[in-house]
Amino acid sequence: MEQNLKQIEEWLLIHAPKIVHESLNPPATLIQLEQLEKTIQKPLPEDFKALFLWHNGLKAKSQNSGNLFYGLDFFDLEFIEKNYLEVKNSQDDVLIKMGNVDPGINPINHRNPLWIKFGYDWSRCSIALDLNPIAPEKYGQIVFIDYDYDTVLLVARSTEELVQTFLNDLHANRYYLNEEALEDGNHFIDCLPEIDLINWKSKKNQRWKRMFNT
């Protein structure tokens, strides 16, 4: 995990240095991680902690509009905790099920506070750490929540797998700098249509093909 994160940073320094120098926060502290665990009253997987001990998300205000996994924003721990509390404190009296979910994902509550969101697409899609799966062995899996299509997809079985896949995709040239952002002096990465998580329903998409009738 540590080596993979190091290689990701090396790739960014070559291809999108402003993300490293201007967008990414310094590492989180163990105290900050313990505070989040205390708030959610659940243990965080060690690989999820390792991700934030690398960098504590992206700066909310930065000269460079950076991003990370699948071109999504990457929250810091303070924002993650704030978002968790907002969702937890605004639960409906009657739970509404999510319409379509991959196997192993608990559909019982479409606003599940234990989907710990740590990134989003600046609209209605989020990537989250799942601390309320169907089976205990799925604890800590990474899911993608698309409220427009009432769907939750399994992205990775763990944070470590998410990081490994991201690194593999970087080395396979599946990420590139967004040209419009570059014209404005920003380093913002896009991914190829074949792996684009945000546009998972696209016919060009190979990784996220699903059998949902949505």
Specify Rg, calculated over alpha carbons: 17 Å
Apparent shape: globular
Structurally, the number of domains stands at 1
**Spatial order of the strands forming the largest sheet:** 1-5-4-3-2
Give the averaged pLDDT, no decimals.
Answer: 94
Extract low-pLDDT stretches: none
Helix content: 25-40%
Record field, number of beta strands:
7
- For the record, what is the CATH homologous superfamily label? SMI1/KNR4-like
What is the H/E string? HHHHHEEEEEHEHE
**Major pleated sheet:** 5 strands, mixed
Structural class: alpha+beta
Strand content: 5-15%
Give a quick precis of the structure.
By secondary structure, the chain is α+β, with helices and mostly antiparallel strands. The model has no long low-confidence stretch (mean pLDDT 94).
Keywords, separated by commas or semicolons:
214 residues, alpha+beta, SMI1/KNR4-like, two-stranded antiparallel sheet, 7 strands, globular
Descriptive report:
It is globular and about 50 Å long. The N and C termini lie far apart (36 Å). The protein has helices at residues 2-15, 17-23, 30-40, 46-54, 77-88, 159-171, 179-183; strands spanning 100-101, 115-120, 125-130, 141-146, 151-156, 175-177, 189-191. It has one domain: SMI1/KNR4-like (3-Layer(aba) Sandwich). Strands 1-5-4-3-2 form a five-stranded mixed sheet. The protein has a two-stranded antiparallel sheet with strand order 6-7. The longest helix has 14 residues, at 2-15. Strand 2 and strand 3 form a beta hairpin. It is α+β, with helices and mostly antiparallel strands and 214 residues long. It is built from seven helices and seven strands; from the N terminus they run αααααβββββαβαβ. Helix 1 (2-15) packs across helix 2 and helix 3 (30-40) runs parallel beside helix 5.
